[in-house]
Amino acid sequence: MVFWILIAVMTAAAALSVLVPLSKARRSAGTPSGSADEAVYRDQLGAIEAELERGLIEPEAAGAARTEIARRLLSAHENHAQEAGGITRGPRLKIAQGLALFVLPAAAVGIYLLFGAPDMPDAPLAARLQAPAEEQSVDILVARVERHLADNPEDGQGWVVIAPVYMSLGRPQDSARAYAQAIRLLGPRQDWLTDMGEAMTIASQGLVTAEARQAFEQAAAMDASAVKPRFFLALALGQEGRKAEAIAAWRNLLAGAEGTEAWVGAARNELAELAGPDGQSDQVGQTPAPRGPSQEDVAASRDMSTGDRQAMIRAMVSGLAERLADEGGSAAEWKQLMQAYIVLGERQSAENALKDAQAAYADKPEDLSSIKDAATQLGLTGS
């Protein structure tokens, strides 16, 4: 019933949007003033003739007055003729009103009957949530679980169920929070810790934050053979500028692979970025790569507040920026710096880093192209 009331209101609004302007135009056209003006001017001509006969006005003045009044009379007559022409459009107005009042609603009803579902009963949210699961859409199922968790926040299994669903829906922050709740209530598991860290990394646009790294380290400690947490830990080492350690981590990871796994290609690309196409880094064995936080620092970060961990991340980013400004670095490190600034919400700093990177690699077209591609993906312009 509510649906049909809404349809009626919308139809009335559509009709009024057409009829009101037309009615105003009709009223303005239906009240011509030209005929009244003509009568006034004719009376004025008669008055001049009477005054001339009685000698109250000079002939020259009477002639001039007659000329002016005649001019005004002719103008009023032309205006009256135009208004009369507008009145003759009355039938067109009636046709337009008829279309708005009858054809428009009829067309709306016909379209709904053709493409809609008039026989379908109302489906309020409460009733949809109570329907069998196999008859519900993903959105309804998510709403159903969310309502359950709002009433039962200590249901750990409910958080386990909804966490991967959030991830599949492109909601990594919600997914990470759900995994954190599940781990708090049910205890840590290697796969939950890994998936939580992955969700945090995706939410940070690919930057492995200190909190995500902590989850990966805990997962790797629970299962040393698990590939996924080790993959992200190797990625974190590269992002922190710990080049030699990152190269060793990627090589160890690839050493245990058969070569057909889905992650192998990405791992090889990361290794090539760090060590070069031949797998040999010109910095390994020579000048040690600047180190990021030590293992003791990482362990201490577990007891940090969110603000302190954020400060640690900023310190890491500042250290990388200073090193690149003083000593230069690889294209991958410049891209890492730009991405880190975006994650921290410092877009202008990211733009400045892009300018510096472009200047540093102005004579290396391939690396410069890679830097510009990364900047485009981050929404940077370099201006």
Outline the secondary-structure elements:
Elements: H1 2-29, H2 34-53, H3 59-87, H4 90-115, H5 125-130, H6 138-151, H7 156-168, H8 172-186, H9 190-203, H10 210-222, H11 227-239, H12 243-255, H13 264-275, H14 295-301, H15 306-327, H16 331-343, H17 347-360, H18 365-377
Helix pairs in contact: 1-4, 2-3, 6-7, 7-8, 8-9, 9-10, 10-11, 11-12, 12-13, 15-16, 16-17, 16-18
What does it look like?
The longest helix has 29 residues. Helix content is 74%, strand content 0%. It has 18 helices and no strands. It is elongated and about 125 Å long. The chain folds into four domains: 114 residues; 52 residues, no CATH class; 108 residues, Serine Threonine Protein Phosphatase 5, Tetratricopeptide repeat; 74 residues. The two termini are 57 Å apart. About 5% of the residues have low confidence. With 383 residues, the protein is mostly helical.
Average predicted local confidence, pLDDT: 76
Shape: elongated
Profile the largest sheet. none
Could you give the order of the helices and strands?
Answer: HHHHHHHHHHHHHHHHHH
Overall number of strands: 0
Estimate nothing, just give the exact number of structural domains: 4
What structural class do the secondary elements suggest? Answer: mainly alpha
Low-confidence stretches: 28-32, 281-296
Distance between the termini: 57 Å
Give me a quick take on this structure:
The chain has 383 residues and is mostly helical. The protein has helices spanning 2-29, 34-53, 59-87, 90-115, 125-130, 138-151, 156-168, 172-186, 190-203, 210-222, 227-239, 243-255, 264-275, 295-301, 306-327, 331-343, 347-360, 365-377.
